[in-house]
Write a structure and sequence with these properties.
Layout (H helix, E strand, L loop, with lengths): L25 E3 L13 E7 L4 H15 L4 E7 L9 H15 L3 E7 L8 H14 L1 E6 L7 H17 L15 E5 L11 E4 L4 H9 L2 H4 L16 H15 L5 E5 L18
Parallel strand pairs: 1-4, 2-3, 2-5, 3-4, 5-6
Antiparallel strand pairs: 6-8, 7-8
The structure holds zinc ion (ZN).
The site of zinc ion (ZN) has 6 residues, from loops.
């Protein structure tokens, strides 16, 4: 999908359902290095600390991007090898299955240390190398604060790496590329500010839950996960539905996912504004 400078209103994307079981073109969920040869550019790249973070925090919006014809990819910063459930190998297989379910064109793993993510120049260069290779227009990542220190570090690491990737003289392989925009997910954040925008994911909830279900080693019988604190004995799926219903109500739809950007969002005209005040 070619980028448009105009904001996407509720009526703008033309969407068509993606074919069931469509294979992901390229899922390499074991750690590799970025290719110096740039690949076909992505519209959206989700960069998160652990395999399964993207699905838990913004899987609906990613599925909706794919349905709208956008080229969506995933970059896991770590293999999640410190997780108390499953193994890195099992999580890699689950991550590949979830990428296929969401319709990602690629899923890669940067192989940085789980439990040891820090925003250093060394790691910025690694992530910037991936950004140069995958050439996304929009980056999606963690909120700036997080329950897990890796999430907080990832949010800042991704922003700084995106800037570095655009410096022509940076000592990195590949051509300079700076993403147009970085957005942060707010789902499940206890200190979340009002979202800059909410994406209606009502029609993509089933695919989101299907992608989450791929991570059976992490979430079968789970009540909470990652940033999602348990709601008593409520199953994780119900906890997700409750959270997304809350954000959906902010834009008067059944389910929504909240995002934040440092910069203001543009809108076209007063007369085309959505979301009822009353
Ligand atoms: Zn995580």
């Amino acid at each position: 999908m070619s980028p448009s400078p105009a904001p996407s209103g509720p009526d703008s994307p033309s969407e068509s359902p993606r074919g069931e079981g469509e294979p992901s073109a390229d899922s390499r969920t074991t750690p590799t290095s970025p290719s110096a040869q740039a690949e076909e550019a992505l519209d959206v790249l989700a960069i998160f600390a652990h395999p399964d973070d993207a699905e838990l925090l913004c899987g609906g919006a990613l599925a909706r991007s794919v349905a709208a014809g956008e080229r969506m990819g995933l970059l896991d910063l770590t293999r999640g090898e410190m997780g108390s459930r499953g193994t890195a190998e099992i999580r890699a297989e689950e991550a590949a299955a979830a990428a296929r379910t969401l319709g990602a064109v690629t899923r890669r793993c940067a192989g940085l240390p789980d439990g040891g993510l820090v925003n250093t120049l060394e790691y910025r260069r690694i992530v910037a190398g991936w950004i140069r290779s995958l050439r996304p227009r929009i980056l999606v990542t963690h909120w700036l604060q997080g329950r897990h220190p890796d999430h907080t570090a990832a949010a800042r690491l991704v922003r700084d790496a995106a800037f570095l990737a655009g410096l022509r003289r940076a000592p990195l392989a590949g051509d300079a590329h700076r993403p147009f925009k970085v957005v942060h997910t707010l789902t499940f954040q206890e200190d979340a500010p009002p979202p800059s925008f909410v994406i209606d994911v009502t029609d993509h909830m089933e695919r989101r839950l299907e992608a989450m279900a791929c991570f059976a080693s992490q979430w079968s019988d789970a009540r909470g996960a990652g940033e999602a604190f348990p709601g008593g004995d409520r199953p994780l799926e119900d906890q997700v539905r409750a959270q997304l219903a809350h954000y959906g109500s902010k834009i008067r739809v059944a389910y929504g996912e909240p995002f934040w950007t440092r910069e203001a969002m543009e809108w076209n005209t007063l007369g085309s504004l959505g979301v009822s005040t009353f």
